[in-house]
Amino acid sequence: MRSLDPPPPERSAELRRRFAEEVRSERPDLTTLCLLVGAEGDGALDEAGMDAVQIELDRLAGLLPYRPGGPRAWARALGELLGERCGFHGCAADYQRLESSLLHKVLVRRRGLPILLSVVWMEVARRAGAPVYGVALPGHFVVGFGTPERQEHERVLADPFDGGRVLTGADAELLVLGATGAPLHPSMLTPATPLEVVARILNNIRAWAAVRPERSDVALWAVELSLLLPSHPARLRYERAQLLVQRGDFLRGAEELDAYADVVAAVDRPAAERVREQARSARAMLN
User: Fold this and answer.
1) How many Å apart are CA 21 and CA 23, to the nearest integer?
2) Residue 208's pLDDT is what?
3) What is the DSSP annotation of 141-209?
4) Separation between Cα atoms, residue 80 and residue 165, nearest integer Å
5) What is the pLDDT of residue 177?
6) Number of H helices, E strands in the chain
7) CA 164, CA 167: separation in Å to the nearest integer?
8) Please, what is the angle between helix 114-128 and helix 194-210, to 10°?
9) Could you tell me the pTM of the whole model?
10) Cα gap 278→211, rounded to integer Å
């Protein structure tokens, strides 16, 4: 399979400008954000390709029955269309592929991580008028149908990674227990916002790259997009600085380390000094 090459610098700068604009808009669009992430990861995804994804999502939505009924009927209709007829699902091997985190690739391969398959489910369902939302269970993203405020028996969860299988309460409990060792808490069923979904997708990409030192380029663009989100951990700046040093950009990496040390100094002076020592070591590599 063709390796994913990054876009040229001018294209990347434009994608990031649009990403920053979208995440700060009043109603960020999930499909748009996922496509901008995809275009940053795959330079072959141009504007025509991004339009094609939108058209395909519209086409799939048009194949759903008109208002099939309540939440359970919607879940079954999506499962029959996307899981059975179209073959969208996931398996363990999908966790080893960067393509599994890129929406345009998931639409073509019909394989992906739970969260990307859930994005397909949500965006197709939303276009068809379904009451749908994402549920960021620890370790496994699923889709909810119905109104979150309703009683538990009026809400339905489905697992797109498993072809859209409708989950019982016990199924959801087991998913959380397997991921965390702790019981399911009602707060875990809160609908995920588009920005929370995108942040989790970028976290997955960073985790994929973290165990592949030769793909520090992927780790860097993923952390830089994460830094454009309105809310992000300050430690991402430290991660970016380390990646710059790892990639041989010692001067910029040292500057980032010093900037992060200034932030940390207010709460942990010894930690700040350790970071400044890393900055000095990075500068020494220039000699």
Assistant:
1) 6
2) 97
3) EEEEES-TTS-GGG-EEEEGGGTTEEEPHHHHHHHHHHHHSS---GGGGSEEPHHHHHHHHHHHHHHHH
4) 10
5) 84
6) 12, 5
7) 9
8) 160
9) 0.93
10) 22
